[in-house]
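Write out a record, fold above all:
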Amino acid sequence: MASLYIVGTPIGNLEDITLRALRVLRETDIILCEDTRVTKRLLEKYKISGKQLFAYNEQKSGASAERVIELLQEGKNIALVTDAGTPGISDPGSMLIQKVREALPEVKIESVPGPSALTAALSIAGVSAHDFVFLGFLPHKKGRETLFKEIAEEKRVVVFYESPHRIMKALESLQKYAPEKQITICRELTKIHEEVVRGSASEVLEYFRNNSEKVRGEFVVVVSI
């Protein structure tokens, strides 16, 4: 019976990959990628060649869930990877996994754990994270301000992802609705310019206003009391 492997890949530093993940990528028949160009760089570093790479994206051109199900029915072992981190965590891969479980309950879906920006950020944020809420990427418009009001009222640690295009607006909303909260920004995790910035929303906002060149990369925002 074919297997679908959910393989965690580096979030920045290409050395952050497990021996098991490398073995699975070498042995599997097909690798489903978010972007084949990104995955090729990882495979080239570890001298993994001759792999059949398919881009998986339900919204864009690429392999559909139906095609993946057909390949599994043909007995192909498939590894699902994302550009960075663990598939299915704030990632469209979760839809594929759900569809495969529904269509092929006999197929083994196996986790090959690896990096996640969520756990990486919490590990260095210096906050008590025995109980937290993870929101993934916040909505761009609809319900966004309501969500910030809810974050302000939340007693637990709140973690969300944000892009460089919206991080300043997110900090402005936190300044407005949660001025007393502690904000920890983790950006460019595991990369050469990794940085952690802590303070109130006003202090963090001021920091990035004075260092606009640092408003780049991916951001993990940790909101605590």
About this structure: Residues 3-112 form a domain with the Cobalt-precorrin-4 Transmethylase; domain 1 fold (CATH 3.40.1010.10). Strands lie at 3-7, 30-33, 52-55, 78-80, 108-112, 132-137, 157-162, 182-187, 195-199, 219-224. Helices lie at 19-27, 36-45, 65-73, 93-103, 117-125, 144-153, 167-177, 201-210. The longest helix spans residues 93-103.
